[in-house]
Amino acid sequence: MTVVDPANWSCPVPLRDHPVVVMGHGGGGALSAELTEHLFAAAYGNETLAALTDSAAVELGGARLAFSTDSYVVRPLFFPGGSIGDLAVNGTVNDLAMSGARAAYLSTAFILEEGVLLDVVGRVAQAVGAAASAAGVTVATGDTKVVEAGHGDGVYVNTSGIGLIPRGVDIRPQRATPGDVIIVSGPIGAHGVAVLSVREGLEFGSDIVSDTAPLGGLVAAMLEVTSDVHVLRDPTRGGLATSLCEIATSSGTGVVLTESAVPVPDSVTAACGFLGLDPLFVANEGRLVAFVPPEHADAVLAAMRAHPQGAGAAVIGTCVTDHPGMVVARTGLGGTRIVDLPLGEQLPRIC
């Protein structure tokens, strides 16, 4: 008789009852995780992909490389502080940096909708070139496709990138360890609110601009202090809270977040209060969260604050043995609450 072990069962499609793709599948929350794990990862089936990190660490010709790809469908194409062109470069550069790598080369692929103004495409291309120059990365290859009018949204951009991981650096979510100090590189929530303000024609009484920026230099400054940084993550889709939940799940450790320690600009707090949003779940494009051993935390924090992209860095929590795989927030009233993955995304189409 054949013995069937339920532990070996797997489901090739998302577990929730969604027979078609919904917007939440692209939001970076629970639906995205299910789509990735139960459909794509199951279909591709390899150990490199199974790590599900921002960029894959691969061995090639004796070198250890970081490799990443991402697609950008932000609406509108231009917003306070940036554009889809900036995001396309900075997002991929930052994904590589989350493995400790300095980006070296990028590819860009433009999907253009018939009827879009060439002036608009030119502005996006110029933004890509300027952002690549600022990040110190070369756009080495690319592609262009055109789809019929009504079958796109003006301009979509895909970027892929490669970079070299320094020897002795091993940064991945599975390395989060009880005792680690959790540091965020600066105030959160500005990108998502900046995009929404233009999309919906909202005014919040003060200018809110995207935080989009390359983080390779900041990560390099941190690694000059110590190569033993355990985890780095850029909290884009789903925001800071989602990144912390994913790290806790991957490492099997608990996370304690001190809500009052998380830097949120007053303008973002006010806008989120008006819109009914939680800043912890709003996307960022120029911030990172780091898990650092306690013996190195003060020095790493000082190095971050000495860098332009980390001037607002703050300690926001710690990694613990309690409640493994879960994030618990200490509230300003002295209580605690569980922080869980959102089902989808509060603000779709912002990256």
What does the overall shape look like?
Answer: globular
CATH superfamily of the largest domain, please? PurM-like C-terminal domain
Radius of gyration: 20 Å
Work out the count of structural domains.
2
Widest sheet: strand order?
9-11-8-12-10-13-14
CATH topology of the largest domain: Phosphoribosyl-aminoimidazole Synthetase, Chain A, domain 2
Mean of residue pLDDT values: 90
Number of strands: 14
Q: Major beta sheet, specifics?
A: 7 strands, mixed
The H-and-E topology, N to C, reads as HHEEEEHEHEEEHHEHEHEHEEE
Unreliably modeled segments: 1-15
Summed up, the helix count is 9
Q: First CA to last CA: what distance?
A: 52 Å
Second CATH tier, the architecture of the largest domain: Alpha-Beta Complex
Relative helix content: 25-40%
What does this structure look like?
- It comes from Streptomyces spongiae.
- Belongs to the HypE family.
- Residues 178-322 form the PurM-like C-terminal domain.
- It holds the Pfam family AIRS_C.
- The protein has 351 residues and is an alpha+beta fold.
- It folds into two domains: 52-169, PurM-like, N-terminal domain (60s Ribosomal Protein L30, Chain: A, 2-Layer Sandwich); 173-339, PurM-like C-terminal domain (Phosphoribosyl-aminoimidazole Synthetase, Chain A, domain 2), CATH 3.90.650.10.
- It is 30% helix and 23% strand.
- The chain has nine helices and 14 strands.
- Strands 9-11-8-12-10-13-14 form a seven-stranded mixed beta sheet.
- A hairpin with a 2-residue loop joins strand 3 (78-79) and strand 4 (82-83).
- Helix 3 (84-97) packs parallel to helix 4 (118-135).
- The radius of gyration is 20 Å and the shape is globular.
- It starts with 29 loop residues before the first helix and ends in a 12-residue tail after the last strand.
